[in-house]
Design goal:
By secondary structure, this protein is of the alpha/beta class. Helices cover 30% and strands 23% of the residues.
Length: 311
């Protein structure tokens, strides 16, 4: 059996606006193997969260274009209609921890009931069985089973984050998308959550897509790294190679913005602004901000650096 879990080919998702379609996801391709974590990094507004929503098909009402291929276990999910996708895939095979997840819990419903909800809705499990499963996964993420009877406001920020992760685990999915899973948390709680994710990945052999703008944080969990810029992936490589020697100029600039404890390196920044996703350049989208640009960079589209031959 192939080790490939998820394969994305030429995925596009544009949003309709008065000024024209916003090309948030513009021809994305990558592959994730079973048990792997892909870290998706890039500055705010580059399309990371839009890609996550395209994969789990949480589409906005102003969708303009949505096409491509998303294969899960060899099956093209784009051929499923919305009812089939909602019943068979979303929260069943692919689940998601969204940004600001701590605010995703309903304040007037007990935590256990909310963690059990995916089983009740998507798999038709009876309430008592679902609650027992909820207590199991709460315990798995480090929350005492008795906390299932508590309301979200009775939990700390870190505990609420763990509860959201438990909710994503309830249906035993193949893939979990983590969209900024440690945002708004203090440094110690961030470390605790990352250690939890590493433990879960190892014990359950799960695959993750970790979306973050925190490069240092991504190195804790990543097996592969994809760098997004202006709606496209500009570099895709295994983590060890990427963190040691990123090859795309944008990736290299990102790495020089990260401080280190053991080396005395000069921090750098990226001048200028990203291009508009309504009318992006047809050539290299990073050319105007790139310190290595040549005349050709403003004329021809680049060949993206996808060195990992599995992708």
């Amino acid at each position: 059996m192939s080790s490939t879990l998820l394969e994305v080919k030429d995925l596009y998702m544009y949003f309709r606006t008065r000024m024209g379609p916003v090309k948030a996801v513009d021809g994305i391709s990558f592959r994730i193997n079973r048990g792997e974590t892909l870290a998706l990094i890039g500055e705010s507004g580059c399309g990371k969260s839009s890609l996550a929503k395209a994969l789990i098909r949480l589409l906005p009402t102003n969708i303009h274009t949505y096409r491509g291929h998303v294969y899960l276990n060899g099956k093209d999910l784009m051929k499923l209609d919305e009812n089939e996708f909602g019943k068979l895939i979303r929260w069943v095979k692919i689940s998601m921890v969204t940004q600001a997840a701590q605010n995703s819990l309903n304040p007037v419903i007990k935590v256990g009931q909310q963690v059990a909800e995916p089983l009740i809705i998507h798999e038709g499990v009876d309430k008592e069985t679902a609650l027992n499963r909820a207590r199991e996964v709460l315990s798995l993420v480090g929350i005492p089973e008795t906390f299932a009877e508590r309301y979200p406001f009775e939990l700390s920020g870190g505990m609420r984050q763990r509860a959201i992760i438990a909710m994503a685990l309830t249906t035993n999915p193949d893939l979990i998308i983590l969209d900024e899973p440690t945002s708004a948390l203090d440094v110690l709680t961030q470390a605790s959550i990352m250690n939890l994710l590493k433990k879960i990945k190892k014990s359950l052999d799960l695959s993750f897509i970790l979306i973050t703008h925190d490069i240092a944080l991504s190195s804790e969990l990543a097996d592969k790294v994809a760098v997004m810029y202006a709606g496209q992936i500009v570099e895709l490589d295994d983590a060890e190679t990427f963190y040691r020697s990123p090859s795309h100029p944008y990736s290299a600039k990102l790495m020089t913005s990260v401080p280190t404890l053991r080396t005395d390196k000069k921090l750098d920044f990226i001048s200028g602004f990203p291009p508009s996703l309504i009318d992006p350049p047809t050539s290299c989208r990073f050319a105007l901000r790139c310190p290595y640009r040549h005349e050709r960079c403003s004329e021809d589209p680049p060949a993206f650096n996808l060195r990992n031959d599995r992708c």
